[in-house]
């Protein structure tokens, strides 16, 4: 009788779970839109809280802190999220983007502390600036997590994070302002954003990386790679700095010429542009990976077909905002804020006109970044920032906040024309911007 020979069985390798298929553009847009809507509504809600429970001066102080920190941390971020989302060939890893962002945010915090210490600010303004700076630094680090998720077209976790961040921000700011004042509210923002980054953003990113590109959430110290990424991203950092400075410059001029109160009114009305910006950003972020693939693969027809649809939506939003300002501007401002805000309908109209151009320019901006037209954007947005500076210098001393709105309108024209020109040159046969 023969006995069967038993041989040891080779161990079965455990395969990692398969990477999930990217969601459809429609599904990604729905989630991104929901996240942006809730977050924008909560941002506006924070402004309403300051206006209702404080005064225009408190709104002005809060807005000035944001206006100072925004250019600093947008430059520190180097817009690596856009590079992550459009990195169709995987030139860099998440660790590269993450490490560079940590270094740059550290420098941004040092710049903020220096401004608070040597910027001739009173004690309240200096403390608010430091707290908002810490909050913006945390937000900038979390943005790298968003970039990793966006690259895999997983917009749902980003949307959930934004919804949570918006709700927490509104709650802690309102509680802090009502109980103790603006400083307590700013501290609550920094604390809430830090907790959300640790307990939600990092775990979601780690899971996406393990299932997708088989990476981990760890920084790296490869200096050559980081230097190469810095050189690629540096022009985009300058672009974001100039873009943010374009938004901040009118606020600086209004505060200098007319004080915190008129600045509070200007910013409160400016925030109503967010409704359209929310849709623009949601669509632009969702479409960026697809635009990048179309352009990288030479699919020009598909690229411009998608871009044309985006521009049509931008035009619709811009005209809709102008119509609302013209028809129900006064009662809307009175309802949302206080009766004194309803006296500034003319300013509201000019701001909505500037917003209409901004929506179109933003869509073109997403397109030229997806097409990897990087360095020429520096010159474009230097021109945009220069036009804003000239407009503010000429008009704000005489016309106040309305003059600042005119400066934003001029900036929108320059951005729209310049972006269209860059994209046209790069898309021509043999063209290179």
Report on this structure.
This protein is mainly α. Helix 2 runs antiparallel to helix 8. The protein is globular. The N terminus is likely disordered.
Name a few traits of the molecule.
mainly alpha
Tally of strands: 0
* Morphology call: globular
String of helices and strands? HHHHHHHHHHHHHH
**Distance between the ends:** 83 Å
Which class best fits the helix and strand makeup? mainly alpha
Counted by DSSP, the helix tally is: 14
Calculate the mean pLDDT score and round it: 84
SSE diagram, text form:
Layout: H1 25-53, H2 56-77, H3 80-85, H4 94-118, H5 123-151, H6 155-179, H7 182-211, H8 223-258, H9 260-270, H10 274-296, H11 300-336, H12 345-370, H13 376-399, H14 401-427
Helix pairs in contact: 1-6, 1-10, 2-4, 2-5, 2-8, 2-9, 4-5, 4-8, 5-7, 6-7, 8-9, 8-13, 8-14, 10-11, 10-12, 11-12, 12-14, 13-14
Task: Briefly say what this structure is.
The protein is an all-alpha fold and 433 residues long.
């Amino acid at each position: 009788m023969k006995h069967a020979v038993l041989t040891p069985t080779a161990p079965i390798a455990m395969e990692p779970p398969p990477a999930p298929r990217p969601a459809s553009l429609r599904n990604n847009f729905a989630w991104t839109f929901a996240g942006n809507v809730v977050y924008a509504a909560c941002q506006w809600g924070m402004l309403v809280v300051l206006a209702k429970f404080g005064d225009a001066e408190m709104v002005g102080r809060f807005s000035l802190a944001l206006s100072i920190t925004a250019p600093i941390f947008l430059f520190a971020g180097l817009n690596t999220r856009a590079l992550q989302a459009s990195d169709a060939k995987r030139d860099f890893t998440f660790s590269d983007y993450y490490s560079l962002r940590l270094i740059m945010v550290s420098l941004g915090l040092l710049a903020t502390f220096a401004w608070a210490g040597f910027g001739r600010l009173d004690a309240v303004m200096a403390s608010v600036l430091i707290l908002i700076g810490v909050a913006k630094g945390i937000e900038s680090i979390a943005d790298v997590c968003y970039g990793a998720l966006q690259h895999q077209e997983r917009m749902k976790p980003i949307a959930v994070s934004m919804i949570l961040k918006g709700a927490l921000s509104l709650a802690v700011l309102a509680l802090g302002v009502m109980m103790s004042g603006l400083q307590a509210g700013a501290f609550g923002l920094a604390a809430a954003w830090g907790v959300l980054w640790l307990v939600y953003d990092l775990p979601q990113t780690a899971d996406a990386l393990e299932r997708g590109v088989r990476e981990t959430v760890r920084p790296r110290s490869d200096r050559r790679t980081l230097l190469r990424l810095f050189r690629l991203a540096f022009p985009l950092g300058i672009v974001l700095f100039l873009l943010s400075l374009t938004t901040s410059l009118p606020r600086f001029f209004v505060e200098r010429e007319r004080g915190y109160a008129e600045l509070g009114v200007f910013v409160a009305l400016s925030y109503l542009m967010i409704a359209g910006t929310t849709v623009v950003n949601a669509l632009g972020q969702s479409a960026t990976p697809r635009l990048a693939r179309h352009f990288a693969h030479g699919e020009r027809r598909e690229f411009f077909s998608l871009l044309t649809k985006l521009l049509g939506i931008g035009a619709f939003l811009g005209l809709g905002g102008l119509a609302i300002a013209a028809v129900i501007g006064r009662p809307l401002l009175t309802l949302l804020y206080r009766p004194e805000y309803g006296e500034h309908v003319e300013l509201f109209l000019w701001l909505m006109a500037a917003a209409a151009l901004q929506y179109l320019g933003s869509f073109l901006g997403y397109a030229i970044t997806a097409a990897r037209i990087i360095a020429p954007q520096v010159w474009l947005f230097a021109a945009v920032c220069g036009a804003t500076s000239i407009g503010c210098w000429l008009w704000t001393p005489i016309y106040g906040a309305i003059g600042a709105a005119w400066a934003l309108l001029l900036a929108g024209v320059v951005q729209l024309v310049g972006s269209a020109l860059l994209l046209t040159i790069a898309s021509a046969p043999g063209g290179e911007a």
